[in-house]
Design a protein that fits this description.
Elements: E1 23-25, H1 31-37, H2 45-49, E2 63-65, H3 71-87
Antiparallel strand pairs: 1-2
Length: 105
């Protein structure tokens, strides 16, 4: 879909998804460390940074969802994302909840 950003909400009043806070977390790494390791495998972190850091940027127990005031905008985004997914000819849902391989949850 030429030129459209993945972060654009296709709803009645389009706005970038960046304007909608969904969650906050306590991070295991600093923002400068994150810039270095972003997109890399956790096994590479030590070599990239020169010292050991946690394998997870943020553990799920340290994440708090905050989108209660913006839930309609989030719902619109998810519905629009699903519609865009169907337009692309895909049949599986765009958002799937995979079980955590360590806990099975």
């Amino acid at each position: 879909m030429g030129g459209l950003s993945e972060s654009t909400v296709f709803a009645a009043s389009p706005c970038p998804i960046e304007c909608l806070e969904i969650a906050r977390c306590i991070s295991n790494v600093s923002s400068s460390e994150l810039k270095v390791i972003k997109g890399r495998k956790s096994g590479e972190f030590r070599d990239l940074l020169g010292y050991a850091v946690d394998e997870e940027v943020a553990h799920r127990q340290h994440i708090v969802f905050t989108f209660m005031n913006g839930h309609e905008a989030l719902k619109s985004f998810c519905l629009a994302k699903h519609a865009k997914f169907k337009l692309a000819g895909r049949t599986e849902p765009p958002f799937t909840q995979e079980a955590d391989s360590r806990t099975g949850e």
